[in-house]
Amino acid sequence: MPGSNNNHMGTPKQCTGNSKRGQTDCDAAEAEYQARDGANREWLKATFDQARSSAAKGVVLVVQGEPGFDIAETEEIDDSLTPEVTGYRAFMRDVETQTRSFAGQVLFVHGDQHVFKTDKPLPRTLNPLLNFTRVETFGSPSLHWVKVTVNPASANLFLVEPVVVTHK
């Protein structure tokens, strides 16, 4: 799932606002998004079905785009509906549903904003899904990396550590 709204052309501004794309380009991008989003959602279901049937302790999901975890929240506005992240809405709704019915841990890794962070952002309320952990990786110009250790004996399963590269 790429950045910039998962390649979804949700508004005319997203289509041509800051680019040289024409309507034909935007229509092709939207068709690509629709087909890929459906396939990704089927893949997600199959992944969790397989994890359940094999009694897996965890699932790791890796995507490129930041699906809206970091949009400012308010009590009056459902920020997950902002045009900038509507392309992730159906997939992330499925991620939350699958995570709720999965006994193991889910590690969701993404890039896009290039700032390391780890948290438990689902759902976007004060009652997080404790078996869901988000890791946002470093990115250019911060060329550090993230080490993930899997420990089946740990209730948390995944230990996430940023590794800072120093230049001498």
Could you please describe the fold and organization of this structure?
With 168 residues, this protein is of the alpha/beta class. It has one domain. The chain has four helices and six strands; from the N terminus they run H-H-H-E-H-E-E-E-E-E. It has a four-stranded mixed β-sheet with strand order 1-2-4-3, with helices on one face. Helix 3 packs parallel to helix 4. The model has no long low-confidence stretch (mean pLDDT 88).
SSE layout and pairings?
Elements: H1 3-6, H2 12-16, H3 23-53, E1 58-62, H4 89-100, E2 105-110, E3 117-119, E4 132-136, E5 145-150, E6 158-163
Parallel strand pairs: 1-2, 2-4
Antiparallel strand pairs: 3-4, 5-6
Structural class: alpha/beta
Stretches where pLDDT is under 50 for at least 5 consecutive residues are: none
Strand order of the largest sheet: 1-2-4-3
- Give the integer mean of the pLDDT values: 88
CA-based gyration radius: 17 Å
Shape: globular
SSE pattern: HHHEHEEEEE
Strand content: 15-25%
Percentage of residues assigned to helices: 25-40%
Give the termini separation.
36 Å
**Count of separate structural domains:** 1
Largest sheet: 4 strands, mixed
Overall strand count:
6
* Number of H- or I-type helical stretches: 4
